[in-house]
Amino acid sequence: MTKNFPDSSSQAWQAIVSKYNQPVLSKSVWQIINSVAPYLILWGLSAWVLQYSFWLALPLMVVAAGFLVRIFIIFHDCGHGSFFRSKKLNRTIGTICGILAFTPYDKWTDSHRNHHQTVGNLDKRGDGDVWTLTVEEYQNSSSKRRFFYRLFRHPVFLIFVAGPLSFLLYQRFTRRTMTRKQKKNIYFTNVVLLLIAVSMSLLIGWQTYLLVQFPIMAIAAMGGIYLFYFQHQYDDVIWRRNETWNYKDMALEGSSYFKLPALLRWFTGNIGFHHVHHLGPKIPNYNLVKCHNENPMFQEVKPFTLWESFHSLKLRLWDEKNNRIVTFRDLRRSMA
Q: Looking at residue 128, what is its pLDDT?
């Protein structure tokens, strides 16, 4: 567990993260170039190679999916207002990147900001997080609800089904609780995506378009949903009720430090330093590593390797009595 963090009542941590909050225009522009340009080139190459063999095109699609994850990180940073100093420029670039990632900018950004303000809060679950029940809630649930919860939390469904569907289908629809601005942005995103799909279908054929776009989106979505899942679902994570919840603790003890290999860290825009990001969401992704390395408070957070992260897929429920996240096997053992 972490220790020796600045007191939550002080402004010490705010002074630390504020030093890294300033975006650098040249770095931001270069990141757009080295993310979007390779993605578009690989997309085109995949369509060309697909004429000869799907299996030869598939490796190109996998790499393209990696660049799409990187584009999503740019989209994500724009939503936090951390990628450019200009609010208008953040929204413009964020909207474009969101279209490439099949994600409406306004709706997702508002939901994600709420996620930062409520993550790990047992009394404010449900917006921008992974469905998580407490042990008591699960035990008191109907058999039908238990079934759907177990289905949703199963790694195969969560990653291979829910991940792609959340980007390809779920993001396409409005809901009554949304603001007018959010609804209009979803309509705009859908119309642009439809125009792109029609244009590309006329240019290269609808079968080729789908055989390239769907695998790329699905692979990127699966990687993205795994990252999002592990960021707040891991051994030693803390969750709290509203009366004891505080922003600093949830950043440093409720958000993971995912120590990825260098190449994956690059493709994921350093989002593995999620404890740093949650404490300082205004920090551009290219400043996260520097912030982590220059401040001992972040280095005291336990890192998880890629191999170690796989264990988190077994975790299912929050045990309030023992203040830890547990597996269904743990629950059966405790009941026995």
A: 75
C-alpha span between 331 and 139 (Å, rounded): 10
For the chain, give the percent of residues with pLDDT over 70: 97
- Cα(133)–Cα(135) distance, rounded to whole angstroms? 7
Which positions ≥6 away from 173 have C-beta within 8 Å? 186
pLDDT tens by residue, 185-238: 999 999 999 999 999 999 999 999 999 999 999 999 999 999 999 999 999 999
pLDDT score of 5 more than 50? no
Other CB atoms within 10 A of residue 276 CB: 29
**17-38: string of b/e by CB count within 10 Å (b at 16+)?**
beebeebeeeebeebbeebbeb
Other residues' Cβ atoms within 10 Å of the Cβ of residue 123:
10
Q: Quick one: CA torsion of 71, 77, 81, 82, rounded to 10 degrees?
A: -120
Give kind and range of the element (H or E) at residue 258.
strand 257-258
SS3 per-residue string spanning 130-159: CCCEEHHHHHCCCHHHHHHHHHHHCHHHHH
Note the helical H segments in 50-153: 54-80, 87-100, 105-118, 135-139, 143-153
Angle at alpha carbon of residue 122, lines to 121 and 123, rounded to 5°: 90
Cα Rg for the chain, rounded, in angstroms? 20
Q: Of 292, 335, 336, 331, nearest to 314 (Cα)?
A: 331
Phi-psi region of 233 (alpha: psi -120 to 50; beta: other; left: phi over 0): beta
Show Cβ contacts of residue 128 under 8 Å, excluding neighbours closer than 6 positions.
Answer: 111, 112, 114, 115, 118
Can you state the percent helix, strand and coil of the chain, rounding each to 5?
Answer: 65, 5, 30
Number of H helices, E strands in the chain: 18, 5
Q: Would you say 301 and 1 are in contact if contact means Cβ atoms under 8 Å apart?
A: no
Residue with tokens 């860290």: 265
